[in-house]
Specification:
about 170 residues, mainly alpha, 9 helices, about 55% helix, about 0% strand
Length: about 170
């Protein structure tokens, strides 16, 4: 008998994210699911919890309209996962400082955003973009890192975020 409030497994969350983003491409024309996998792997290698890896798979789902906020609210996920996904979801017209403050105020979310920024700013990934786009994005990612207090070479796991060591 299944427990009534069983949560989705990490494999199920990955499958949902892959399906939701199946038709999406990144700015370089690559399957968007490659970015999701890279962010989830970045969270894992930075010592993130299973909840953080789950949120990494879903980190762009609401922002990109791949899954609705209503879906997220009703999904069989721990509240911490839902909170982290919503924390890293940028709203249309939202002030960058308000966005980064929400990430900093949400336990566990900083590691997801750090992994996202690391993959987005990967020189090999940026190299295939038009120079103007590459410059604009490089500046944007540096600004966000600065607002989040991330310095080059420092991972949030080295900062004081207790959720980075918490179990699900």
């Amino acid at each position: 008998m299944t427990e009534p409030h069983a949560h989705l497994t990490l494999a199920e969350i990955e499958a949902i994210a892959r399906e939701a983003h199946a038709e999406q491409r990144d700015k370089a024309g690559r399957p968007y699911t490659e970015h999701l996998a890279a962010v989830a792997e970045g969270v894992r290698t930075r010592g993130g919890s299973e909840a953080q890896m789950a949120a990494a798979w879903l980190h762009d789902a609401v922002e990109d309209d791949a899954l609705s906020e209503r879906w997220l609210a009703g999904a069989a996920l721990p509240q911490q996962v839902k909170d982290m996904v919503l924390a890293v979801t940028r709203r249309d017209g939202e002030d960058l400082r308000a966005y980064t403050r929400r990430i900093l105020d949400t336990p566990g979310a900083l590691l997801i955003k750090e992994s996202d920024l690391a993959h987005n700013a990967d020189p090999a990934r940026l190299a295939v973009l038009e120079p103007a786009t590459r410059t604009r994005l490089t500046e944007k990612y540096a600004l966000v890192r600065g607002l989040l207090g991330l310095t080059p070479g420092e991972s949030p796991t080295e900062q004081s975020d207790p959720a980075n060591t918490a179990k699900d």
